[in-house]
Amino acid sequence: MSRFVLARGVAAVPAVVVVVLGVTGCSAPGPLAGPSTSSGSVSSSPGVPSPTGTQLSGALPPLTETFTSPLNAFTISYPAGWSVHPATKRWTYPLPGPETPAQGEDDLLDPHSSGVAPGTPGWGISAQVIPAQMTDSEWLAWYVRKIGTSTSCNPPYSHYQPIVIDGHAGAAHGGLVACNFTEAVVVANHIGYVFAAYPNTKSDTDQVYPPALFAAMLKTVHLGRT
């Protein structure tokens, strides 16, 4: 799975991200400007602008299962019936973001959803131990540069939506029908984490990953140490 391949090129305009998970007003440590906020309010799953597509439908399923990554130092809860494909190697600096378990990504797939064939909705989660000579903010700046800052799917970091994951300030982007992904990035314990959710893991669709499910699953995340 890859937000680099699946995200369509769209105009460089400020992005409206679909999920707010924690207190606003969180700033990324320099050298990046922190995500912008318009108020101090909190919303767990606001509506998604979707002028040319639809959200995947269905009630929020119970998160009854728990996955603990054998390599990437996190746990997350997910619905029953999903298939899990753990990473088989570590993602190391300065390699680009992984796209498969063999490259360092933990994949969680929902085979029962109403996603458009031939793909299914799913998550790709990866983590990178930040090099000792690098600060957390330097790693975050490197990652944002790697994925680009010239589209509404991958905007400048100042247009990311501030979030909180397991008590750590992070930021989210994507969440538009043109993107085919919603992604959250957070640094904890000198590890950079990337949580990406896709309405279709194989092809572009005019859909948005369900924001309520994205928010609910991220709220179950516990970050650890490798």
Characterise the protein shown here:
A hairpin with a 2-residue loop joins strand 9 (182-188) and strand 10. The protein contains 3 helices and 12 strands; from the N terminus they run H-E-E-E-E-E-E-H-E-E-E-E-E-H-E. The longest helix has 12 residues, at 136-147. It has helices spanning 3-6, 136-147, 211-218, and strands spanning 54-55, 65-68, 74-78, 83-85, 106-109, 122-129, 161-165, 168-174, 182-188, 191-198, 207-208, 222-223. It is an alpha+beta fold and 226 residues long. The strands form 3 sheets. Strands 4-5-6-10-9-8-7 form a 7-stranded antiparallel sheet. The protein is 11% helix and 25% strand. The protein has one domain (3-223): Mog1/PsbP, alpha/beta/alpha sandwich (Protein Transport Mog1p, Chain A). The two termini are 23 Å apart.
Secondary structure topology:
Blueprint lengths: L2 H4 L47 E2 L9 E4 L5 E5 L4 E3 L20 E4 L12 E8 L6 H12 L13 E5 L2 E7 L7 E7 L2 E8 L8 E2 L2 H8 L3 E2 L3
Parallel strand pairs: 1-11
Antiparallel strand pairs: 2-3, 3-12, 4-5, 5-6, 6-10, 7-8, 8-9, 9-10
Task: Summarize this structure briefly.
This protein is α+β, with helices and mostly antiparallel strands. 11% of the residues lie in helices and 25% in strands. The protein has one domain (3-223): Mog1/PsbP, alpha/beta/alpha sandwich (Protein Transport Mog1p, Chain A, 3-Layer(aba) Sandwich).
